[in-house]
Design goal:
9 strands; five-stranded antiparallel β-sheet; 13% strand; alpha+beta; globular; single chain
């Protein structure tokens, strides 16, 4: 974690993007141009984010962010990038909840202008807990904060999930439901299995991931629960904070209709992923932050719903993350950044914790 170079995140040329974005922007706002287009260094490994200002004699808005589907020629992390789905999800959340979601402005489904579909939203200023190096490491604003300040951020972030799950009618989010048979959880897991099969097609499979799927089947909930709108990538690294209060909730490409615990498991485990890596590197990390018991208790207090089957759902989060990590590793191999080892499980950074979850010893 401390020595590996960051994987390649883009194959696109910022100057070419600026020219093409300015040409497109003029069709939506005559006389406008894109100014200061940047691809942030910490850009995602999936959809890309462009930041730019609108130059115009009388601009109705100036600071924007653009979410651009991954370049289909760049060994994408996911098989499909449905930008209209993300746009529609953000519009729905803005309409039906009090969550601070950036206002979406334009959707472009034609890949012609920038090479892939995209949408534009207003840009919200603030600060985001870093992924590289993770906020659990020393040397960033969240690690340097006081316990009380982190407590405020944690409480406010769990509140985002509680309000999202409670405020959006499930029927309004039906367009996010996975196709197939069975209840929402069954279809969600089936879709993840299909994603894994796509990742390893023609490549070495992961015995650990397959064992995790088997363990999920053993832990399957008797009552999965009523599905709600799930944020999908529900973690603090996808929130812009003003001080320690959420100012913008970002990254809705994994949004889904699923039980509440799918989001909760992801929030809990994605923090543990960073915390485990930090401890393994010899640092203390943030052991009191986003603890599973506190997240579950706070969520229950806010919603009246006591989280259930959380051993299943934290394992499911770790499994889903492992599939993404494996795809990213194979992507790095595709670009010649790493060699594929004899044991593909070692490509999964959290293989030790995932194995412990499969064995039932992780939360001991």
């Amino acid at each position: 974690m401390t020595t590996a170079p960051r994987p390649r995140t883009t194959t696109r040329d910022p100057e070419e993007l600026t020219r093409r974005l300015t040409a497109w922007l003029g069709t939506r706002l005559p006389g406008a141009e894109a100014v200061g287009v940047t691809l942030p260094a910490a850009n995602g490994l999936s959809s890309e984010t462009l930041l730019f200002d609108i130059g115009h004699p009388e601009p109705p808005l100036r600071r924007c962010a653009l979410r651009l589907a991954a370049d289909p020629a760049a060994y994408t992390v996911f098989p499909v990038y449905d930008m209209a789905r993300q746009y529609r999800t953000m519009a729905l959340v803005a309409e039906r909840t009090d969550l601070p979601v950036p206002r979406v402005l334009w959707l472009e489904e034609d890949p012609g202008p920038l090479g892939a579909p995209f949408f534009v939203m207003e840009r919200v200023e603030g600060r985001v807990p870093p992924d590289v190096m993770p906020y659990t490491y020393e040397g960033n604003w969240l690690h340097a904060a006081s316990d009380a300040e982190r407590e405020r951020l944690e409480a406010a972030t769990v509140g985002l999930l509680a309000r999202l799950h409670d405020q959006v009618p499930a029927g309004a989010a039906e367009f996010l439901a996975e196709a197939g048979d069975g209840d929402a959880l069954r279809r969600h897991v089936t879709a993840q299995r299909a994603y894994y099969d796509w990742v390893v097609a023609g490549l070495a499979p992961s015995p650990l991931i397959e064992a995790a799927f088997d363990r999920l089947a053993q832990l399957w909930p008797d009552d999965p629960g009523t599905p709600v709108l799930n944020w999908g990538d529900a973690r603090i690294g996808n929130v812009v904070y003003d001080g320690f209060a959420p100012a913008a909730v970002l990254d809705w490409e994994m949004a889904a209709l699923a039980p509440r615990e799918v989001d909760l498991g992801w929030t809990i485990y994605l923090h543990r992923f960073f915390q485990d890596l930090t401890v393994a590197s010899g640092q203390r990390g943030l052991p009191g932050f986003l603890r599973r018991d506190r997240v579950e208790t706070r969520y229950a207090e806010l919603t009246g719903h006591t989280p259930r089957n959380m051993e299943f759902h934290t394992l499911y989060a770790a499994l889903r993350h492992a599939i993404v990590m494996l795809r990213i590793a194979y992507r790095r191999a595709h670009f010649g950044e790493v060699a594929v080892p004899a044991d593909p499980d070692t490509l999964i950074l959290h293989h030790d914790s995932l194995r412990a979850m499969v064995q039932g010893s992780y939360w001991d």
